[in-house]
Model the fold of this input.
Amino acid sequence: MAQEGTPVVRGGYLHLSGERPIPLGSARWFSWLETACLFSYHSSCGRRMTLRQEKRRHSSYWYAYLKKERRLHNAYAGRSAALTSERLAALLEQLWQKEKV
Done:
């Protein structure tokens, strides 16, 4: 789903082209989230999802998307302040398990 050049979160760090990795949970991470609109999250087991920021009702919220077996699943991720490493891992698991329920 993510295109080439899309920022990637992998191994607890945000990887931007040409910049030093940013640790998740740091002030720099949360600052970056306020200006970003899209990034991809890759887990250690090879699963990945894309997160996109959307403006709704005069506020910004993040939504997670995962394409699995030709179906697109989505879930509300929350505001920027809620996007911790633990939250991202839980979202990915939630989306991965969505079809099994």
